Amino acid sequence: MFNLVYKSVANSLSPTQIDEILVESRNFNGKHDITGCLIYHDGFFIQYLEGNVDIVSTLFEKIRIDARHYEVILLSKGSIYTREFDTWSMAYLSNNLPNEAFQYIKLMVNPEFDIPNMSVVPNPTSKRFWLAAKLLLNKIGHENFNKDR
Predict the structure, then answer these.
(1) How far is residue 58's CA from residue 124's CA, in Å, rounded to a whole number?
(2) pLDDT tens for residues 83-124?
(3) What are the residues whose beta carbons fall under 8 Å from the beta carbon of 24, sequence distance 6 or more?
(4) 3-state class of 50 per DSSP?
(5) Which listed residue, 33, 36, 60, 104, has the most CB atoms within 10 A of its CB?
(6) DSSP letter string over 124-145?
(7) Strand-pair partners of 35
């Protein structure tokens, strides 16, 4: 099992375009046994993907050249023992969340708080972040909550 995390800057996207990205992602991921979470906040994406190393790596190369975003930066990648988002083909969190619940996630994607150079292997900081995102998804039952695996 393999995971990969990246962040990027979105081109101007409407809510409909974000929905299209989610539908496309969920369809592809469901067919290829990929799970993960997409976070969108103030024009920035951060995404966690997990699955087969070859499939996730090939998908990331497609994501890297997608015209809907730019400045794609790989934050971490590496082997994992188990999936974090095993029941989501693509969970989604956005700034529609209650303010107090979103503050931790906002810190991760906000350009004012540049992420220091991280080694490109899973690390405790990124694991805690994604566990917090998963717990938030489970807790809030938000309309963007998608448990479709």
Answers:
(1) 25
(2) 888 888 887 877 665 555 556 555 555 544 444 444 444 444
(3) none
(4) strand
(5) 36
(6) HHHHHHHHHHHHHHHHH--TT-
(7) 50
Signed CA dihedral, 136, 140, 141, 143: sign only = negative
CA distance 49 to 69: 17
Which residue from 87, 86, 103, 111 is spatially nearest to 3, judged by alpha carbons? 86
**CA-to-CA separations, 93 to 76, 98, 120, 137, in angstroms, rounded:** 20, 11, 24, 8
Which ranges constitute the DSSP H helices of the chain? 15-32, 53-64, 99-109, 124-140
Alpha-carbon distance 123 to 76, whole Å? 8
CB half-sphere exposure, 100, CA atoms < 13 A: 1
d(CA 75, CA 121): 8
Question: What is the value of pTM for the model shown?
Answer: 0.73
Residues making up the chain, counted from first to last: 149
For the record, the structure tokens of 77 come out as: 């990648």
Q: Distance between CA 117 and CA 95 in Å, rounded?
A: 25
